[in-house]
Structures are given as C-alpha cells and as structure tokens.
Design a protein that fits this description.
EC 2.4.99.28; membrane; disordered C terminus; cell shape
Length: 498
Amino acid sequence: MAGSRPVSPPTGMPVRPIAAGSGGSGRSGRTGRTGREAQDRVAQDDDGPVDRETAELRVPLLDRPLASYYLLLSSAGLLLLLGLVMVLSASSVRSYALFGSAYTLFIRQAIWVGIGLPIVVAASRLPVRVFRALAYPLLAGTVLLLMAVLVPGIGSVRGGARQWIVVGPITIQPSELAKIALVLWCSDLLVRKRRRLSDPKHLFVPLVPVFLFIDLLMLLEPDLGGAICVTVVPLTILWVIGTPKRFYGAVMGSMILAATVLAVVEPYRIRRLLSFTDPFADANGDGFQAVQGIYALSTGGWWGDGLGASRAKWPELLPAVHTDFILAIIGEELGLVGSLVVVGLFGVLGYAGLRIAHRSDDLFVRLAAAGVTAWIIVQAVVNMGAVVGLLPITGVTLPLVSFGGSALLPTLAALGMLLSFARSEPAAAKYLARRAEERRAARAERAGVRRRPRLPGRRGRRPDLELVPVDGLDIAPGTGGRATGTGLSVGRPDVSSS
C-alpha cells in the first residue's frame, strides 16, 4: 500500500540476508569460495551493513585473495632467515680455520641474499609473457655452460666432480640454472603445442630428448643428485599436462632402469648405496658422513643444545656441515622441534605452490608453478632423507637454507616468479586492481585538499602580456605602466590597419 510504513520483524528475530541465486541454501555446491565472494557474504551483519575493511577482516585467511602470496612469502622468508642464522652457526669454526675469521662464510652468504632479494622483488612484478620470452635464451645459455664446465681448464674439480666454473671471486654451478631453465622451457613448449598433445610424438618430442641430454651432461660431471632434481621438473610437468598413464609409466620405467644401470656401473655409487642400507657397517669409511649426521641429530634431543653449541661442526667430524648436512646441525642445536619447524615450513611452501597452480586460469602458470614447487620440495626431501638415513647421500643442498649462491639465486628467482603467479590469480588480480584504484583516488583527494582554495572576490594574478613600449610613446609616471600615446605593441604585429 502506497505510503504505508514497512513492517518491522518481531523483537529477538534477526533478519539475515539471503544471497541471490542461493535458493535459500546456506552453502554453495563448491567447498570453497573466492575471496571476493566471501567478502560479499559478510558485507552485512545483524545490525546492518559494515564497511569494506571490516568485511575483509571477517573473511577466513585461506579465502582471502592474496592468501597464496603471503603463504609463499612468509614460508620462504622464514626459511631464508633461518638459513642465514644456521650458516653463521654451522660455518663459524671452519670459517675461522680457513680464513682467520668466523664470519667470512656468513658474510658471503649474506651478500648472496642481498643480491637475491632484489631479484625476488623484480621477478614478482614481471608479467607472464616475460617469463615465457626468457625460456629459450635461458635454456640455450644453460646448455652452453653445462658443456663448458666439462672442458679441462674451464670447469673446476672439487671432491672428484667437475661441476663449477670459477670467474674471479664468483663460482657458477650450471646445474642449478638447468632447473629453472627447464621449468620455463618445458612449460612454454607444451603451451605452444597444446592443440597437438594428443599425438605422443608432439607430447614427448623434443621435450624428452632435451632433458635427457641435459641429464647426460650432468652425469658426466658427475652430479647424480642434480640430475635427479632436474629430471623431476619435466616429469612433473608431463603429469600435470595430462600425459596418458601408459606413456607416463613407460617413461618412468625407462628412467628407473637407466638410474639402476648408472648406479651399478660406477663403483663409488654402488658403495654409497650399500653404505646407505647399513652405514654403521663401515662407520669410518663410506658410512662416515651418514653416521656422523645421525650422531648430531640424536644428541640434539627435543629442544637441542642451543645455537652455536654444536660439536659436530668442529673439524674432523661431520663433513659439509654448512651445505649438504646443515639439517644435522639444526637438529643438534635446535632439537627435534627445530627440525620439525623446517619440515613444516617446506610443507607450507609446497602447499602454497600447488595452490597457485590450482587456482590459475593460465596453462603456462599452472605448469611452471607445479614444476618449481616439485623441484624445491623434492630437493628438500632428498636432502633431509639423506641426513636422517632414509635415502642415499647424493650431495644435494637444502633449498634456501644451505650455504651457496649458485643454488640460492636460481631458487630465489623461481620463488619470485611464483609470487608473480600468485598476484595474477583471478581473485588476487581483481583485488589488486581495486586497491590500486582506491589508492589513486585517495592520492587525488589528498592532492585536492592540499591545493589552496581561491577566496571569493579575490582577484587573480594578472597575466603577463609581455607589453613593450613602442618608439615615440611616453610612459607617464603614475599611470601604472600605461602608455599615454595611441599605439601599443603586444609582442605581435598590428594588423588592424591592414
């Protein structure tokens, strides 16, 4: 009825808004909602509408648009910070013995971190097309470096392996670049051929021959651990793209057979495998490093001996304390709790990476995010498994934690790329665009407030007409600069007489 007042609900019966199209159902068919939908769901409460900031605070953490971004950033940042602390603790004794200062190796690692952080920031702001454009040049440069490191006089031999190229104070390990290069190249290749992937020839060629050639170059160094981590990248991408199981099983079987042959051919590899099954059988020989690592972990107990209190880091005890076996020092100084924190942080990082791959609409982003996540998590599992005695020792470092710039910089670049992918999620992109628009509007409003308003009735500044006196005219004093004659030049010719 026109002019009638709306009927209020009885006291004590709150009215809850029903989302349009819900049909009265309290939940949608999907188990999760985007951050934008969750904000709309809580935009009203029992007392009336609330502002947008309050609504955003009520959204569950994992439903917020930038949840993947902050999960990845926080877990990687904490691992990097923990790595700096543990490199200082683990390397102090041997750094003093080698260089006369307990901080030399730590300062080098801090410099690498300082170089890597701007790379992370820059990569996190790059669009997807830039990463795709870098795929082929980066792969070509990596293959050239892998071939160059095998040349005597160019490649540096350490521990019986020719894996490094020394250029002045900088040491380059090309096998670390191969991981991110394969991530970009494999993802871009399959995206370009996505309409022809039903044909096995287009699915496996040239992807499989190229990564097998890279594996061969790394095995010639030899670097079995690096070859394992590199192989994980294309295998993960092939799985995500939807390779038929019979073909995928054939590839996996061939890889396992090849790895078995390589392990049997080289005597030192078969000895390492046998020592892995029972390291205490040769505790002073091939099982020495594994045994010392187990001793370090076992002496830490629940809470550890405290930072800097490790005994295994002293010379003649645990080898590679600040690189391959830094987890043993973490376990000794921070205990089981500290070791589980490291495992948990890698778990959060892996979850964030897979979440980014799942929530993206771009096929390249899905493949690259899955490849980077598999590379980092598998490398961490191989390293931690070797330290605790569950896997053979392969010389693989712990990502973000172990000492070494050649491994750290590619990992940070890959994490920066993942951060860029997290910002490009549909919900995150909409949220960032809206936030940028609000900030521009706020800046414009502040600029308008700072601008001094003109008072009513106040005359503005008279414009400078660049008047110049004409020959023959006199300017009388007291006339305010006005000529007493009949002519006046204003800086342009007088065309009235014409």
